[in-house]
Amino acid sequence: MEQKKPDNPGVRFPPPFLFVSGILIAWLMESRVARFRLVGGDASTAPLETAGIFLIVLGILLILWAMLMFVRARTAILPMRPASRLVETGPYRVSRNPMYTGISIAYLGLMLLLNWGWLLVMFPVVLISLYHLVIKREERYLLSEFGQEYEAYCRRVRRWI
Asked: Using one digit for the tens of pLDDT, what is the confidence trace for 9-56?
């Protein structure tokens, strides 16, 4: 019996929810368990805050640029919908996942801005969850949808940066 091709990656939630979950858990740990600072004592956090704001802005700009490429290509941004074409322009020339890279950069910026060590603790958990619950499914779907074109793209372009 022939297996039907999936019409979308099978991701059941918007991937930014994983990052928001990490932030919420970090907030709970910060507020209910113990404060865990990256820089503590009397040290100034101004450089940390400045770097954090820079990373947040950089991450948001990368996300917006990547989303613009999807809009121009007229393909689905949300992974719960089918892809109509493979996007290889803009930030997709250097990263297969620039939206996730941008969200990761903004997340790290928030960590610096807030000076929350728990965000750093949660970061690998968020990334591992993102890989297993989203990226693997997206890659499997894109391979089934675009075949050799996607394989060639994967050989040319790294997953992150």
From this structure: 888 889 999 999 999 999 999 999 999 988 877 888 899 999 999 999
Residues 101 and 160: beta-carbon distance below 8 Å: yes
Task: Give dist(CA 31, CA 109) in Å, integer.
Answer: 20
Multiple choice CATH, 55-161, 1.20.120.1630, 1.20.1530.20, 3.40.190.10, 1.10.357.10? 1.20.120.1630
Looking at residue 86, its pLDDT comes to: 92
Q: What is the pLDDT of residue 4?
A: 66
pLDDT at position 66 is 96
Quote the pLDDT of residue 80: 81
Exposure class string for 29-63: b at 16+ Cβ within 10 A, else e: bbeeeeebebeeeeeebeebbeebeebbeebeebb
CA distance 140 to 68: 24
Angle between helices 98-114 and 16-28 (to 10 degrees): 20
Residues contacting 78, CB < 8 A, separation 6+: 14
